[in-house]
Every structure is written in structure tokens, then in C-alpha cells.
Amino acid sequence: MATRLVQINMKAQDDAALGRFWAEALGWGIDSEGPGVTNLEPVGFAYPDPTAVCIDLIARPEPKKGKNRVHLDLATTSPAHQAELVARLQDLGATLADVGQGDVPWTVMADPEGNEFCVLEPREIYRDTGPIAAVVVDCADPREMARFWGEAMDWTVHEVADDHATLRSSHGVGPYLEFIRTPDPKTGWNRVHLDIAPYRGDDPATEEATLRTLGASDPGIDQSTISWRILTDPEGNEFCLLSPR
Predict the structure, then answer these.
(1) Pairwise CA distance, residues 240 & 107, whole Å
(2) What per-residue confidence (pLDDT) applies to 1?
(3) Phi, psi dihedrals of residue 54, rounded to the nearest 5°
(4) What's this model's pTM, rounded to 2 decimal places?
């Protein structure tokens, strides 16, 4: 078969505190696998249902440096809802952010640890995504990203252009995955990255081999003590291939 996007991995200096912020922001439930790991998913969610892409927060001591290459766009249903959501997020500890966006109809914000995200103006395309409209990845070549990720996962490519590309689960539910062309080069490890997983019964080693033939690479680190695989996409963005469940 193929893989599917199941969660976003986000490093945090305080995973529990940042987890509480995002749980409140999204109206999701919060769980913990142990010290230093906080999991977020919709209340009543049955992992890995395609209706949502979950969030896994991992404690790391390094502070955030520079703009993240992966961020979330949040959906709204009306101008009033957008304004109310921005105000509520500020009450939770988010701040307004300037990443050079200029005069745009969406609001750029940063969570309590400085991770950028956007609160979008109402858009018809996101009417049924849930609170997360899209997972957005900065890249140099959206067409190549759409080619790789469209073949790496069972997600459907919806739109491809020189400056952007859009994918969504083949089930037609949940958030979109979007690649936006940006001139900023990748520097260092991404603080936020994608986690994908094979379907239950599929062989992770076979899926890893397929990903490599598509253009995935080895980041060159010792992975002998972990049960998942860390790979990089054709632009060097780290991602994890998890075990199926």
C-alpha cells in the first residue's frame, strides 16, 4: 500500500505547558506517553483516523532559532470567528508575529514558545477540515515536493503550481498538506516535522525502501536505539516513518 500522514512532531522546551496551549487552542484532548512526551488528538479520536493529523510534543532543551519551515494554519468560519479566535489565543499566551507577511487577510501568530502559525480568514476550501485547516511546509520546489509526497503517501494531489502545491487524504477528510515556495534556505534541524506511518499489516522496511527509491535520504545519525526510522525528503526536511498500528 502506501503511508499516510498521522501526526506533526513538535519540539518543545516544556512539552506539557505547550501541550496545554495547543489542546486549548484546538479543543483537543491531551495525553502523555511519559516524561517529555505529550500527545494531542481530538476527543474521542480513534488513531489513526484520517479526519485529523495529531500533534506529538517532544521535550528538547534547545530554544527555537529562526522561522520554522513547518507550521499550522487554523480554520475559521466567519470574520467574527477569526477575531474571536485570535483574541482567545492571545488570552492563552499566543502573540502576534511578523514574518514579513505584509497586509494579508490572515493573522500570523506565535505560540508561547515562538512557533509560528496562522489564523486564516474564512475560506470555503477549509469548511470541513476541523480546527486545523492545513499543515504548511516551506520549500524551494513545490512541484518536486508534490511529486515526492504524492507518491510517498496515499494522499491525493489537488493542486500543483510553481509557487504552491496542495494534498489531502484520499478519504477527502481532515486538513490539507500544503507546500509553499519560499526563498529562505533550510538551516539546521527542523523543530517541527511530519510523521508518517504504513497501514496496519504493511512492512515498514518495505515502505522505507520505497521512500528511498522516491528520493528520501538518510540524515546520517545513529538510529540504533529507536524503533522508528528518521529520513529526509528531497529538500532535506526530516520526517519519521513510524511503526503501523
Answers:
(1) 30
(2) 63
(3) -75, 175
(4) 0.96
